[in-house]
C-alpha cells in the first residue's frame, strides 16, 4: 500500500495501471503453474472442478507471450512491478515466518490490524462484538 501511495503521488495513473497489469499477469501465471504442478504431483486430491490440462497449458503459452512481450517493451515498468511485489517479503518475514516475536511487536501488529479494520470498515475488531442493526 505504501509503495502504491508513493507511486500515485509521484507518477501518473497510466504507469500505475501498467505496474498492476504486469503484477496480475505474473500472479495468474504462477497460479496456473501451481495448478499444473498439483495435478502432476498429487493427482488423487479432491477437486470440485477438474478441467482438461490442455486449457491451462494453452493459457500458459499466451501468458508467456504476454510476459515476454511486457519485459521486452517496458523493462523498467516490469522491474518496478517486481520491486512492488518484493516489498511484501519483509512483511511476510515479520508477520508470518518470525514465530517467537517479542510481545511489543505482537501488540504493534495487533494495534495496526485493528486500526486498519476500523479505518476501512472491513472487519469488527477482535475485542468487540458486532452490534445488531
UniProtKB/TrEMBL annotation:
InterPro entries: AminoAcid_Transporter (IPR050598). This is AAA1 protein. The keyword Phosphoprotein does not apply. One of its GO terms (molecular function) is L-amino acid transmembrane transporter activity. It comes from the Eukaryota. The chain crosses the membrane at residues 16-39, 51-73, 79-98. The gene is Slc7a10. PANTHER family: AMINO ACID TRANSPORTER (PTHR11785), ASC-TYPE AMINO ACID TRANSPORTER 1 (PTHR11785:SF73). Keywords: Membrane, Transmembrane, Transmembrane helix. One of its GO terms (biological process) is D-alanine transmembrane transport.
